[in-house]
Write a structure and sequence with these properties.
The relative contact order is 0.18. It contains 10 helices and 11 strands. It has a 7-stranded mixed β-sheet, sandwiched between helices. Strands 6-11 form a two-stranded parallel sheet. The chain has a two-stranded antiparallel sheet with strand order 8-9. A hairpin with a 2-residue loop joins strand 8 and strand 9. The chain has a single domain, classed as Glycerol-3-phosphate (1)-acyltransferase, CATH 3.40.1130. The protein is of the alpha/beta class.
Length: about 250
């Protein structure tokens, strides 16, 4: 998938602008592999999808939630045009065939030599902790045979706290520092023939990827899915801790 003019323009403008507003430190650029690869990161705030592309020399095409592309009305159409313009691909998270079709679009970018970005947890963390990863990232890695590059994002939740649309420039009166930490690429040679796509294998690989991401981000692990926690928080007016406790009964 070629780099769009909008993507290039935003990167040229956004890099010095955000560097001026925030202290963005990028670590581990020496770990970037050649050829196609998958960027797998934790997800603390919407702006992760801005800071990660700014950190990467190559274009990163993120699998973004399909809601960004299907919202009705003028605002919805404008939003969809923007996300397509910056190279993001709709990701249907309902599971089954629709999710597989979304992954197929990402696989095609990788087959064409590009870079795909994905948040294995499937949604933003409701409270800054690291939640159980979905297996989509594992399936994409197994089907394409490309390496997975774990990335830890730190500090973006201070810019946009969970549950808020407000953008902050400072935290406790001090400039906010964002760190993008790039780990060593993960390969799964033992599965390169693609013959074993069982859920057990996908679960094993997804968990390994999630563990590597948390080692970079320093997040505490919670062994439930973040989207289920957020649903309980919204439906039952629970705190994240209450929702986690309910799901772990």
């Amino acid at each position: 998938m070629p780099t769009t003019a909008l993507y290039r323009s935003l990167k040229i403008i956004g890099s010095p602008l955000l560097t001026g507003l925030y202290h963005h430190e990028v670590m581990g650029l020496e770990n970037l592999p050649k050829g196609p690869f998958i960027v797998a990161s934790n997800h603390l705030a919407f702006c992760d999808s801005i800071f990660i592309p700014l950190a990467m020399p190559r274009t990163v095409n993120f699998l973004a939630k399909s809601d960004y592309f299907t919202t009705p009305g003028v605002k919805g159409r404008a939003m969809a045009a923007f996300f397509r313009g910056v190279g993001q691909l709709p990701m249907d998270r309902s599971g089954g065939q629709k999710s597989q079709e979304s992954l197929n679009a990402g696989a095609q970018v990788l087959k064409d030599g590009g870079v795909i970005g994905i948040y294995p947890e499937g949604t933003r963390s409701p409270d800054g902790r690291g939640y159980r990863p979905k297996v989509g990232v594992a399936r994409l890695a197994l089907e394409t045979g490309v390496p997975v590059l774990p990335v830890g994002q730190i500090g973006t939740d201070l810019i946009q706290p969970s549950g808020s649309n407000r953008i902050r420039l400072r935290h406790d009166g001090k400039p906010i520092q964002v760190r993008t930490i790039i780990g060593k690429p993960l390969t799964f040679e033992e599965y390169t023939d693609g013959s074993d796509l069982s859920h057990r294998v996908q679960r094993e690989i997804a968990d390994r990827i999630g563990s590597e991401i948390r080692a970079l981000s320093g997040q505490v692990y919670v062994d439930v899915y973040a989207d289920r926690v957020k649903k309980l928080m919204a439906d039952k007016n629970m705190s994240a801790d209450e929702a986690v406790a309910h799901l772990q009964r």
